[in-house]
Amino acid sequence: MRTIQTLSGVEFEPDLPHRLLTIADEIRAAGGRAYLVGGWVRDAMLGGNCRDYDIEVYDMEQDVLIAILSKFGRTNLVGKAFGVIHLAMKGLSLDFSFPRTESKVGYGHRGFVVHTDAKLTFREAALRRDFTINAMGMELPDLTLCDPYNGVEDLKAGVLRHVGPAFAEDSLRILRGVQFASRFRLRLAPETVEMCRTLSLDDLSIERLFEEFKKWLLKPGKPSLGLRAFLEIKLDEYFPEIRPLAGRWDALGELLDYLSSVTYFTDEERMVAMFTALLAGNAVQSCELDAGSGNDSCAEDTALKFLARITNEIKLVRGVPLLLKHAFSVKAPSGSIDSPSVRLPSDPEIRRLSVALNGLRLLIPFVEGNPLEDSENRKTFAAALKQRSMDLGVYEKAPVAYLTGKMLMDLGVKPGKQMGDLIKQSFELQLDGKILNASDAMGWARGALDG
User: Fold this and answer.
1) d(Cα 166, Cα 146) in Å, to the nearest integer?
2) CB of 39 within 8 A of CB of 47?
3) Which of 162, 159, 137 is nearest to 147 (CA)?
4) What b/e readout covers 358-384, taking b as 16+ CB neighbours within 10 angstroms?
């Protein structure tokens, strides 16, 4: 059993595969040293397990390491230039690499020359990493901490600090700073803010941008702290589509935090809800002319413009503009709300909202989490709206027309415009509450045809 002491002073036994410890013993016996590095160490110091095991091997040549690893499974040199050896075993896969330095020689994230050197010290190799909290290592098999750039102290202080000048060689690290600030509740060090402000995101692909936005908005954490870092770096100038909510960045952060805490979202719902919230500052403007900017585009258009810069994800391209259009269309009343049910939208309005959004599962959290409204009122109002939509059977999904083409064909109506018009008219009456079931719809259709 191997334990470490977390930042909170608690003894923690991390989840370590026995086979990895056996491999580390063999590496040590052959004169090498193996370190767990990166996110595994950071998470362990915070008392959490990470299933990504990245191991750096020092003082050992590649052929010697491959010979050791081959005893345990199938090896694959996945990146000769990077010196990465992938070991696949039953139920487990591990990545072993050699210490290396990187030099920026070209444009984009591929424009690096990599030099592997098994004789580098851990401190020298860690200098290429992004933040001090990711520049720690634990030597196997004893889990002895190696922390040359004081990552533990920065974690304790809640500070996200870059390791050194090599940080500037990959501009993606700007957005990594944003998502780390959110996920680990950190604040950027002033010198890191200044470093980030000197870099540009222009050389990054939309795929790389999207991955960092997803980690910021979708992984557990406090997204408002990511927003704070985003603003400190002045990324709102690079992404002007992200605006404050009614002129308040704190309100936008509060909305992001609330939606992040909703537990019942599916993965797809969470993605749509969080990206909608990020762009909610545009929705509050209600498609009006943004004074002084000359921008008269609607919130949905702005959302599409932003999404086109970071993703081709069809679920977002379709879902975000739609939700943005309706997210703030229903508001809790101000003042006393002793009888919220009488102040709800009418049943026909609720049904039509459900049709527009294919259910109200995503709208209700925006009503409840709207930081521009009174906290107690919006919670009571949202609960009443949810209950009424459930009573009407339109909370989970949109209502479906009772009148169908088959029913009309049974009445002698042929497919075509007349059939479409009858179904549409019947559905409008259904949404108004004047047609309650399929029998009512059939009766209405007979009357319409006879008339």
Assistant:
1) 20
2) no
3) 137
4) ebbbbbbbbbbbbbebeeebbbbbbeb
Which has the closest alpha carbon to 366: 236, 239, 290, 279?
A: 279
Q: Are the beta carbons of 179 and 227 closer than 8 angstroms?
A: no
User: 203: which residues sit within 8 A by CB, 6+ positions away?
Assistant: 107, 108, 109, 171
Torsion of CA 205, 274, 215, 172, to 10 degrees: 30
Contact yes or no for 412/377 (Cβ under 8 A): no
What number of CA atoms fall less than 13 Å from residue 391's CA on the CB side? 10
355 exposed, middle or buried (CB, 10 Å; 0-12, 13-18, 19+)? middle
Contact 300, 285 (CB under 8 A): no
Q: Which of 232, 215, 223 is nearest to 261 (CA)?
A: 223
Token output for 403:
């009148």
What pTM value is reported for the model? Answer: 0.90
Q: What is the pLDDT of residues 220-260, one digit of tens each?
A: 999 999 999 999 999 999 999 999 999 999 999 999 999 99
Q: Is the peptide bond before 321 cis (omega within 30 degrees of 0)?
A: no
d(CA 280, CA 149): 39
The angle that helices 347-357 and 417-431 make with each other, rounded to 10 degrees, is 130
For residue range 402-442, list pLDDT tens digits in order.
Answer: 999 999 999 999 999 999 999 999 999 999 999 999 999 99
Q: Length of the chain in residues, anyone? A: 451
Tokens (6 digits) for 99: 């210490």
SS3 of residue 361 by DSSP: coil
For residues 394 and 355, what is the distance between their CA atoms, to the nearest angstrom? 8
Distances 133 to 101, 147, 178, 209 between C-alpha atoms, Å: 19, 9, 14, 22
Q: How far apart, in whole angstroms, are the C-alpha atoms of residue 134 and residue 125?
A: 12
Helix (H, G, I), strand (E, B) or coil at 273: helix
Distance CA 364, CA 384 (A): 10
Closest CA to 20 of 145, 133, 139: 139
Structure tokens at 310: 């970071």
Helix or strand or coil: residue 379?
helix
12: Cα separation from own chain's centroid:
28
Measured distance between the N- and C-terminal CA atoms of the chain, rounded to whole angstroms = 84
